[in-house]
Structures are given as C-alpha cells and as structure tokens.
Batch of 4 targets.
Target 1
Amino acid sequence: MLLLSLKIYRVLCVRKAYCLFVFSLIYGISFAQNVAVVNGKSISTKEFMWAYKKSHNGNMSTAYDTLQTYLNLYINFKLKVLDARDMGLDKSASYQEEIKTYEDVLAAHKKVGVNNKDRDFLLNEYREGVLMFNVSEQKIWSKAQEDEQAIIDFYNKNQKDYGKPLSEVRGEVIADYQQNLEENWLKSLKQKYQVRINENELKKLARL
C-alpha cells in the first residue's frame, strides 16, 4: 500500500512538473511577442509597431532609443486609459454613443482600403484615445482652468522661476501647472499598476 502511494505521488509530481514546464514555455513564448505588460494586459509587438509607424508617418526607422522613448509614452497612454476605465468613464452613455458613431463610419468605409487588422487597431485606438482625452480633461485640464487658488499657490511656490507678476506669465504658469499635475498623476498610476517592459523584444525590433 505504501509503495502504491509513493508511485502515485511520484506520478503526480511528474505531471505537476510537466504542467509547470508547459505553462512557463507558453508564457515565455507569449511574453516574447509583447513589448510590455501593463497591469496584466499585454501590449503586442504588432499593436505597438502599428501605432509607432502611424505616429511616425510610416517611417521604418527603429533605433533602440527612439523605440524606447515611444514605448514609454505609449505605456503612459495605456496607464491613463486604465485609470479612465477604473473611473467607469467607458460606461457613460455619451462615450458609448461616440464609439458607436465611429464604428459606423469605419463600417461605411470598409471598402476603401481598410483591412480587418487596421480596422481593429483603428477602432481600439479611437476607443482608448477618447477615454484618455476624457480622463485627462478631468484630471488635468479642468483643474488648471477652474481651480484659481491652485494656480496662485503653484505660482507662489515657484515664483523664483518666473520673475514676473502672475498676470504677465499666467499662460506659462498654467502650462507648468498642467505638466506638474500630469507628472504627479503618472507617478501615482505607476505605483498603482504594475508595468513590465520586454527589453529583449524591443532590442530585437531595433535590429530589424
């Protein structure tokens, strides 16, 4: 009986080890096809390069530093979208109506050189772009335009950097305040959500 139990235990151990090996292999292959993972959601190499080329007018130049800089910006974008979803902005009727309108436009122009892959990327880009705009409006732009006391406090704290009365440098102060709000926002998002960058995949793209 003891020998039988030991055999069963060994078989289970072998099966468990095999399952762990297969899982790690599948995960490794999957991760290798991604440039980053943000809060458990992958950014695929295909999506990233599509966005990169689109923002660079189809430019195929893929120097490592350029890709790295763009990936950091793209991750910041994804973090803001995550925050918007956590706030429930994707559930609002106005948002859903706007997305439906855009889907109808894409469908109407389906025969004009937009293949299925590009259509999916375009639709996702629009969905996330609207969310990023809406959450940025709440977190940054509205605060900078409506919170007069915050502008005054920011100016007083950094007055040595301006050397002029607030009335003369108001536009510059508001721009700097918005930048400060965004930096603090992104810092909090990076503490809230886990970000993993696949440096090996990025280096491989730079060698293509």
Note: Residues 1-31 have pLDDT under 50 and may be disordered.
Target 2
Amino acid sequence: MIQLIVRKELTELLRTTKVTWLLLGLAALLGLALYNGYAYSTTRSAFLRESQQTTYKQFISQGDKNPHLGAHFGFYAYKPTADLALVDNGLEDYTGNSFYLEPHQRGVVKFREVSDATGLRSFGFLNVGYFAQFILPLFIFLLTHSIFAKEWENGTIKMVLSTRVSARQLFAGKLLACGLLVGALVAVLTLGALALLLIQHGLAGLGRLLPAYGCYVGGLLLYALLLTVLGVAVSLLARSSALALVVLAGFWLVGVFLVPRLASELARRAHPSITAVEFDDQTFRDKEYGVGNEGTKDYRRALLEQRTLAQYHVKRLEDLPVFYIPITIEYFEETDGHVMDRAYAAIERNEARQNQLVLASAVLSPFLAFRDFSLHLTATDMNTHNDFAQQAEAHRRRVGVVVDAFYQKNTVASNNFWKTVPQFAYAAPDLGWRLANAAAPLAILLGWLVAAGALAALAYRRLWA
C-alpha cells in the first residue's frame, strides 16, 4: 500500500505545472552552480600555483647581495585553493591568499578576492555549497508545503483514511515520496560535483578527497532529511497550503537572513575586536619594554652581548670569529616573534569566542549549522585560514634562521645560496581535525533532526486522531 501511495504522490507532483517549472529552474541553477564552482576552483588553483612559482624563482635568482638585504627581497607564501573549493569556497574570498615572507615583520595574509569583486558578490557566490545551503531548503519547502494541506483543503483525507489505507501508511507514503524527489536532487548535485572533482584532480586525487567528500555528503543528506521531515510535519499541522507556505518561507527567511546577521552583530558587540591602531601600539610597547620580567629591549641587548662574548670566550665584539649583526637580528627576530605570537593568539581567541556565539545561534537556524559544517569539511573555514597563517609565519622564521646563519660568516650571498632557502608548501589539516571542528554544528543538525522528528510525531498523532 505504501508503494501505491508513493507512486500516486510522485505522479501528481510531477504532473503539476508548478513542480515542472520548479524542477527546470532548479536544473538551470544547479548547472550554473556546478560550472561556477569548477571554473572558480580550476582558475584560482592555476593562478596561485603560478604565482607561488614565479615569486620564488625571482627570489632564488636575485644575484649577489648582502644576505640580509637579499632576505628583504622576500617572496610570497600562497595559500593553495582548497581541494573541495569546487563544492564550497567558504571564506576563501574574504580571508586573503598570500603571506609575504620578509625579515623583522610578521606577515599578514593579504589580497582578498572580494575586494576586487562587483557588488553582485554581496548576494553570494552560486556554487554547490550555496545551492545546498540556501536554494535546496527553499525547494524542499515548496515541494512539501501542500503534501498534506491539499488533502485537508479538498476534504479527501477522510475519504482516504476510510479505505484500507492506515494513517501510518499515508504518512509514510507521502513522506517517502517527498524524500525520493529530494534525494534525487541531492544525488544529481553530489554526483555532478563528484564528476567535476574527478576531472579536476584525476582518479588518484579523487581517492584522496573521497573521505572528506563522503562526510560532506553525509551531512548534506542529514540536512535534507530534517528539512523534508519538517516541511511534511508543518503541512500536516497547518491544514492549509497557504499557511504552511507562509510558515516555512518565514522560517527560511529568518534562518537564512535574520539570525546570522543578528548573531554576528551580537558577537561583535559582546566580544569587540581590537583595532589596528591599538594592536600596533600594544605590540610596539611590548617589544620595546617587555612584558613582566622580560626587561626592556636595551636590557635584553646588553644580556645578548654578554652571552655572545662568553660563548666565544672573547672580551670585545671586534674579536668575535663571526659577524655580530646577524646574531642580534636573529635574537630580536625570536623575541619580537614571541610578542607577535601572543598578540595574534589573543586575536584568534577573541575570534573563537565570536564564532562560538554565532554557532550557538544555529539552534535557531539549521541553515547556519549546515553552513558551518560545510566550511569545516571543505577546509574553507577560519580555523584552516589561521593554520595557514601560522605555518607561513613559521616558514618565514625558518628562512630567517637560514639566512642569519649564513650571514654570520659571509657578507655576500649568490644564487647558489638563495636556492638553499626552502620553498613554502601548505597542506590543509587532515579529516580528523576537520571533523573535530565540525562536531558542534553536526550535533546541532542532529538536534534539529530530533526536533523535526518530534514535530512529525505530533503531526501524525493529529492525523491518527
């Protein structure tokens, strides 16, 4: 009997003009989303790879120079495009992609693509992630809002229940029919993205991406399921197609637009970020005067001189068997680095508090929870960006150590030396790290599924009554 109900509902749904046009519109949007994601990912990946190679080649072929001056020539560390950016580019356009490696100064990730984009980017970038997070829920609600309400409005539900069809069979059949249509759309979406990932990365590369992509698809199925159950439950409770549509559309508007904006504003006010001027003033004072018992810069410089003379068993700097200037450079690079590490760690802690407050608001919006889950699984989130910045800074300091060690005994560096300076390479954290960060939004999604199931159970009781 359930099979008959499913067949009947699918036939009715697919025969209606509005569903036909809805599916055609979705097909066009889905095709555009897949194309945009593929074009963005391939173009950006090639550009960043070429930029990384070009700037490094310029550095290692700069010719004979004083080692320290040559180090100031510098080169860029580029954050490679995330392997799953085709699916969701997340915060990539907003966080920047390049980190300048130069002595004395901690780099800042620069060149945000969104700064060069047109005003249309404020509406979002249509790719697979955007489609799944915002357009798919609207399709589900348009599909499910009348699945039961039309029976109440036409007065046919009592006729159907007076036959051999039970309330359980009717509810399961209609829910399954909606689920099959939604599942078909999710299948087309995920298989289309999978095919493009295969084209982009090849079979070997795809095998490396499959675990993360499989987890993303699992989260997407959970997201689609809870929205489908929610839509069917509201349709049964409302008993009016218009009322059900208003409730579901209002829920979508509030969850997609209102809650994220209110949450971000609340987070900004509850945990205000330090300004650039305050940051510069604070780090300058800490470098010059120290924190706690670190002592002033002059005091630390005197201690360094004493230690260096004792290390080489001489009484004057002029008698050192090595150049003293690179020793001071390396020493203050390290001590100033501790100051900057503390300052940036404080910024990251404040960002984490802001993000936790925004994520807490996802209990009011499953759309926000899935968006956070998607960012973590595709490695386009703020945590991955901070990891890149930390690794780039560590590489900048490694370059300084290599150059200063050479400078202690040499005043001129040729291309043979510059080629010994290591190139920067970044790999995003592994799947375990991503899943650990995605645990909170995943738990919220599961909570929403339980809530949707409870609402469906309540609606089913009314149907049975």
Note: The chain has one domain: 2-269+366-464.
Target 3
Amino acid sequence: MNNKEFTSELAKRLGCTIKETSDQMTSFLSDLTQHLQEGSSLSIQGFGSFEVKKKAERISINPTTKQRMLVPPKLILTYKPSISLKDKFK
C-alpha cells in the first residue's frame, strides 16, 4: 500500500475528503518529526514507541585494505512495536 492508497482509505473511514486527510497526516508527521528532533521519545498507544538514540563513535576496519577508520557518533531513530501490535502477528 502506498501513501496515496493509504490516504484515500483513511479518508473513506473518517468520512473526510482526501485533501483534509492528507493535511492531517502531514501535520501529524510534522509534529512527530519535531518532537523527535528535540530528543523526546514518543509513544502511540496500541502502535508502539519511537525514540532517538545516540550511537557512539567507533573504529571500523575496511576488510579489503585493512585500513582503520573512525566512524563519528550519530543519532538513529528506533521503533519498538507495542505488545498488542506484536500479538496480532503471532
């Protein structure tokens, strides 16, 4: 299912227009992104939680040249599904 199909299905279920639904989704994703950029974690009941974690710097070795490289620290986004969502796929 792509974004257009998802938006139209959601619009049907909510009884809204596709434009209104698309605007609401854009607003939701914008707020979600803003909270995550601030370093906050976000939990959605029945769906799961999103969190930004910091990966420490590390030394990596190129297997071909055996050259050591320093990989700088970076932030990664993690997602952990809720227990109820996990149970639906068992």
Note: The chain is about 40% helix and 30% strand.
Target 4
Amino acid sequence: MNDFCYVGAETLEIMAGAEKYNAYLERLVLKYIESGKSGNITVLDIGAGIGTFAKKISTKGYQVHCIEPDLQQSEQIKELGLLVDTSIENIDNNSVDFIYSLNVLEHIENDEEIFKVWTGKLKQDGSILIYVPAFNVLYSSFDKSVGHFRRYRKSRLIEILKEAGLCIEEVRYADTIGFFVSLLYKWINKGNGKINKNSLKFYDKYLFPFNRLFDFLFSKYIGKNVFAVGKRI
C-alpha cells in the first residue's frame, strides 16, 4: 500500500500563486516538448504535485500522464480531469515521447538510480527535462523542511544524464536574482523553513521578471535553479 505523504504540501499550495515563476516554467517545458517533435506526443509529468503544470500543459493539446505518489495530491490531480498514477512502475518502458520533472529529483536519495528508471520510459529519440535547485551553498532550513537531500551544479546533472546514456542537449542555470534572494533568506531565516507568502508574491511580481535579462547575461555561471535536457538515442 502506498503511504507516501509529501512533507512540502503546504509549500506547493503557496507556490501555485507564483504566477510569473510558474508561467516561466510552463514556457520552458513547452519549448522542449515542441522542439523537433510533431504528431501525437505523450508527456509524462513526474512528481506532478497538485497538477499545477500538468493542467496547463494539457490545455495545449498534449496528453499528459502524471506520476504523483502522494495519495491526497494524486486525488487532486484526478479532480482536474488528468490521468495519474502513484508509481512510475505502471508506465511501460519505451512508451513516452517527453518527460519533465520540476523540483523533484532533489527529494530522492538514490537520484542517479531512479533517473535511469525514468529515462527507461522514453521512446528512442524521446527527451527529458529536469529542473532542480542549484548550489549547495544555498541549502537552507527551507530545503531541509521540504525534504531536499541536496542541490545541484551543472556538472552533476551532466554526470547523471551521461550515466543514463542520454545525449545532452542543454544544461543551464536559471533564476539569477533568486540566487541572491535565497542566500539572503539563508542568512536571516530563523530556522523554521517557512516561505512568507507576501514576500513570495513581491518577488514574483517585481523581481522575477528581471531574470530574463540577468539569466541571459549570467545563467552560464549562476542561478537559484539549474535545468538539463537530454535525449535518448
């Protein structure tokens, strides 16, 4: 019986209100789904949470299958009219065109082993996008409170993709401004790991939009997050 319960459920609800940040992630996913693909595309959202992104992606005409082990959250996804399973073992190997996983891999202790399971679900020429927190120097009470084992550097993502036998298409940092905001949070937070909803809204509305410029200039070197795209060949 699946009794998994995600400790960061409250954070998911708060982050659902970060409209500009979520819109950026939606555009990022769509960019790589649509890159060089045509026809009926099967998409897998691993660690779908409450369906924030799966619902948006599905409105673009894609068949999105969600994987969410938290039973309460998987029920919320069902209520959105989306297909959901609690285990990736229910997905056939070599059956998926595109996989995306947003802020999930850092929750998995044996990340390299599990990543190979994920990529085994891809068809030949299928692609995967993973987006995770970057730089262990930013690891804070927030990371600990939501069950993060680690944060990543580009070099580590490259290793994981190569070990899975993928051709690397892109690896980049993202959210340059967020790097410095997260560093400040680490210094001043009292240790409860909570996100202030009003502070998040302020950052999302007034600071995050400037990342388009700053990421263009500095994402090769720094960012609050890092993402990688790989293709199964």
Note: The chain is about 40% helix and 20% strand.
